[in-house]
């Protein structure tokens, strides 16, 4: 809990990171196009001294001293977007994270890759959380192995495998 200017703010669900710490996530071309359109229309900015927008580094910004998007603003924008899309289910912005993970894992993206993009230190967390998304994994493996054994797919073996074969 922080206090300032006569108001109390509860800080929760935040992960404090170093300024240079972060992670890269693959951006689909459809989303990149939307961001480019947003940049074309609005540019980037930062807010200084109340409502004064000046050129800056932010794609989206809160109006205030920190420029950091506050949960209340994100929540209000989310509710407005849901209303505009006529969505009545109780879903939150956090569902986008689950959608990202579920879509990737259900289409065969490796758990280790998804874990890194989700910020999970251990892929076990990702697997435990999303194992129900991957019930067809055994069938996918059968399909891959059938195509390899029928010589329909070129198989690239790791270098370590070549060394083991030569030693035998």
Automatic annotation (TrEMBL):
Transmembrane segments: none annotated. One of its GO terms (molecular function) is DNA binding. The keyword RNA-binding does not apply. Keywords: DNA recombination. This is Tyr recombinase domain-containing protein. Residues 1-146 form the Tyr recombinase domain. GO terms for biological process: DNA integration; DNA recombination. Pfam families: Phage_integrase. InterPro entries: DNA_brk_join_enz, Integrase-like_cat_sf, Integrase_catalytic, Tyrosine_recombinase_XerCD. Signal peptide: none annotated.
